[in-house]
Structure formats: C-alpha cells, structure tokens
Amino acid sequence: MSDEKLTLTPVSRRAVLSLPLAVAAGELLAPQLAWAADDPLPSWNDSRSRTAILDFVGRVTKEGGSDFVQIDDRVAVFDNDGTLWSEQPAYFQIFFALARVKQLYPDHPEWENMEPYKSAISGDLKTLAASGEKGIATLVMASHAGMTTEEFAQIVVDWITTAKHPRFNRLFTELVYQPMLELLALLRANGFKTYIVSGGGIEFMRPWTEKIYGIPPEQVIGSSIKTRFEMKDGKPVLRRLPEIDFIDDGPGKPVGIYKFVGRRPIFAAGNSDGDLEMLQWVTGGKGPRFGMLVHHTDEKREWAYDRQSAVGKLDKALDAAKDAKWTLVDMKWDWQRIYPFEG
Amino acid sequence: MSDEKLTLTPVSRRAVLSLPLAVAAGELLAPQLAWAADDPLPSWNDSRSRTAILDFVGRVTKEGGSDFVQIDDRVAVFDNDGTLWSEQPAYFQIFFALARVKQLYPDHPEWENMEPYKSAISGDLKTLAASGEKGIATLVMASHAGMTTEEFAQIVVDWITTAKHPRFNRLFTELVYQPMLELLALLRANGFKTYIVSGGGIEFMRPWTEKIYGIPPEQVIGSSIKTRFEMKDGKPVLRRLPEIDFIDDGPGKPVGIYKFVGRRPIFAAGNSDGDLEMLQWVTGGKGPRFGMLVHHTDEKREWAYDRQSAVGKLDKALDAAKDAKWTLVDMKWDWQRIYPFEG
To answer: In Å, how far is A251's CA from the nearest CA of chain B?
Structure first.
C-alpha cells in the first residue's frame, strides 16, 4: 500500500463520492469495487482508525515483511448487529420474530392474553424487553421452528425484502454501514476470507448476507436451533426444532469460530460486550492481529449508546480496548457517511 | 469434456502411470495436477462408474445446458473413513486414541484393571470392539479432552506423521485412495467446493486434510466435543471438554452439512450405512445430483466387506442404492490402483 493512498486528501475522496451511487440493497457491492482503485475506504474520514486499518492490511500482505501472513491464515471475523448494520431500537431479528408471531396468531388464539405473545402482537417493545432473554427465546422458538429449512429460508427472504425499519422507513438491509462494506471489500481484495460471527440466528442471516455483504452462507456463523432429518411426503428434508443448539455470543463466539473455521482469525470487529471474548481470543494469538470496536456515537445520523444500553451494551469491552490496543471507531468522527443511501 | 477424454484407452493411462511418482504423504497432490491435462481420472478403469462421474461433471458445468449448475452451488461432500482412506481393521482414529491412552497410562495407574482402558493398553482390539460405542466414547474422552485446541492439534500432527498402519507398515495418510484424490481434484478443477463430512472427530482431521486431500480446515465437518473459552496464564485459549457436542453420523450428516455449509450439496460420496441419510438428502434435491457408494470388494489390495462388517457396515445403503440410482463403485473392478504407493 503506497503512502499516496494512505494520505489521499479529503477533496479527492469527495470527488469519488460524487459519482452516481446504486443504493438498492442488491447493488451495494459493485460501486465499491469501482472505487477501490482510487481509495479503498472512501467513506472513512482521514482518521487514526482509517490509518490503522490500512497500515495493518499493508503489513500482513507485504511479502518478505516481518508481519507477512500467508493467504490461508488471513481470516477476518465480523459481528453483525451494531457492527455491520444497525441494531436499534431493537435487534432487527426481533422485528422479524414479531411479524412472524402476528402472522401465526390466527392459529393461536391462546396467545391473546399470554406473555410474551401479547406484547409481541401489540408491538409493545418495552414490555417485551422486560420479559428478558427467556421471553425473546420463547418468541424465537414459536416463530422460527416447526418448518423445514427451505421453508424458513423463504419466509426470511419474503420478510427481508419487504419489511421496513420504523425510523427510516427503509428496508432493514439498507441500514448497513457503508464504511464497513468498504472494509469488507478491502480485506477480500487483499486475500482475506470474511466471516460473520453473530449472536443472531444463523439461518436468519444466510439467505441475504451474500447479496448484501458479499459473504456466502458457509461463512456465516450464528446462534442456532436444532434440526432433524426426516422424510416429508417421501422427500428428505431438515425440520427446524424448538430447541437451542448453540448460542454464538460472548464466550460462545471464539467457540463458534473454532468450530466452523478451525483457525484463529487475525482480524476481528465488534461493537458490544458480546464481542469481548472474540476480540480477546483473536488478538491474543501470535503475530500481527487487529481488533476493532465500533462505538455508536452519532445520535443524529444513527444512535448514540454504550455502557447503559439495553441493546448492544458496550462497557467491559470499552474498558478492555485501551490496554489491548484495539481500534475504537468513533462513528460520528470517523465515518463520513454511515448508510449507503446518504447522498 | 470431450469424447476423446471420455474414451481414453487403457494403454495411454498406463503410460501416464509409469511416470515417477512422489508418494510421500505431503506430495500427493502435485502429480495429479500434472495428469489432469491428459486424463482427469487415470487410476479409474474405463468403467460405468468413471463414465457416470465424467458425464455428471460435464453436464453441470456446461453453460447453457439444461443441467448447468451455478458455481456457488457446486458443493461436493465426501465421507472420510472407507471413502477417502481405509478404515480396517479399525477406524484409524481408534489407533490414535489407543496410542494416546498408552501415553497417558503412567499418570493413570487406576486404568490397569479397568475396561476399556485395559484392552486399549494391551492393544486388544476385539475386547475393545465388544465394549461398543460407550467404550469407544470413554476412550475418546480420556484421550481427546483436557488440553487446549492448539495443544491437541500438535498431538495429532505428531502422531499422524509417525504412526504406522499394522498391515502395510506405512503412515495412515498413505492409505488414501488414489482414485478419490483424482476425483477431488477433478471436481475442484470444475469449480466444486469439496467438503469432508465424517463421523470421525473434526479436530482429528483438520490438522492434515489440507496437505493430504487439498481440503482446508473450514471445509471439514465431523463429530465434535465441546470447547470452552478460558484464560491460561493470561492468554485466551479454548479448552477441550470431555463432553459430546455433535455426532456427525447417519441422520446427523445432513444436519451437520446444513449447519456448516447452509446449502444442499449436489454431489455426495460415502461407503456405509452411516452415509445413507446424507446420500438421500443430497440426491433428494432438485436438479442434477450425484450419489456414490464405494463398495469394498478387494480383499487382496485392500479389504472386502459390506453387510456383516463391524466397521463400515454397508447394508441398508446398498439396498437403497439401486432405486436411488447411486453409482456403486466396485473397488476391485473400477480402480486400477488403490493407494498412491502402488507402482
């Protein structure tokens, strides 16, 4: 990576940004690649975070350099909620679960006065939040299990291509972070294999991550419920069961990564305490390592929250970041643009 | 794929085989690639099995053809024991477990008169087999758990690069099937992503599958024990626990594939009843599908066994193969050469 690229002036970056943009969810990737030749991170301000990323990528890809990393070991892992797309006022998968519960309600009149269904049906997010993890798990089981894997994938696609976010009135997949899309593309252009490692449901993400992030289903790791092989009308299928298989959060993240990848990655990005152990494990390995935390500091363009937030609480990991020398991305100051649809 | 390649005469194949071979475990892949230009399957006799494979690969890769399959969906799954390498007189991982138990015995004097340890230490495979799955599981827990994932990988490498098979007095990794190495290479050359889906331990395979089969760790699916994130001397590690996480066998195989890959493959190869549901699920999807069973019929060069065998029993799947039109590979007649070291 040449110095010229590292010190690209804001003016030329703005010039790049004035190019017409395709902002439809499915067309996010093409324009980035066009920019890449000019500036790989056009939506990042010329900050320490940006310099740290470019420096790291430059070092691990420099053949003969002391920090060179073989291409097979260039594995990068990204949390999803709050790291690649927004997570307020509730994890987007909660909106999906609520929509499903409403859809199923006609067949379940008993839900009318039963929590957490009652709050789900009335859209009362606060009471729902008060029902805690157990309440959410109950809703997920009711809404995510029972059908075959192929039926569920179709249900997800139907929802994700039509449902709108309450604040922005846009598809949830439009609320992905443009700077992170550019970072994913930069890493891949430099031989990295990019993975999602999310506390969210693995099969809730897989049907759309390739189109939106360029990350294929086999590179998506997440929480899961069990499935069972069975014959349905003489055809072999996998049925989704209302039973937790794996919780890919907190100390579960390094466990999930090792299970799926079989290697310790060299790059990890997260935004909450649920990413703490993943960052510790990734950056605790030998050789060059990169840890990143996205800090939500922009209440105007996105949201501002950290230590006190019910969603995406960032407290212990924020304390750990300093000693561990993780890069703390300040959304407000580091990101010139947040969402692809911003002009 | 041209007709000329499909009907390559045995003479020219033999001519290719007379080339000097590098048979060291780590050098298996290079010579195949050299052959590929000439004949992609030089160790396969000109049989129906060989024709069926080449026909399938030709159809799914022919752009504009009615059976064309997009490159992302070209996923092929292979059982390991008895499909890619031998599995007699016992699964090779059993030999590894026995060696580990012997190594640990000095610290466990209580094992002297306790089964299954006693049989393991004396190398009494028959009594051990009689202890059934429970006995084997006990040995695996005693020998595969307790250490960190990185320590375990090193233990596997130390064993696999030195231990010898009792019949052939060769490294276990030399007992891989040359025709299957060629098939893996052929599929990959045609855009397939090749996976191992084994009842064996995932972390027992991952340290060596890339070198031997060209299959990287993230494309190895297998049975697993749980791991736990922890700090060891201030360093973050994953510790292996004596607790089953997932059994990747029988109906567990499609479950494991969907969990790791998130797609239904279009090609599956196995050799025993443990592969039945995997073959049913893979070949039960829409569009062109290929199912293959390796039938062990060569008692001279390898072993001959099927319906009555304690290891790799092939009974129900053999019955199912006919109706399902799976390709039954007859080792004795279809394979000109079995192991890479054969002259």
So the answer is: 6
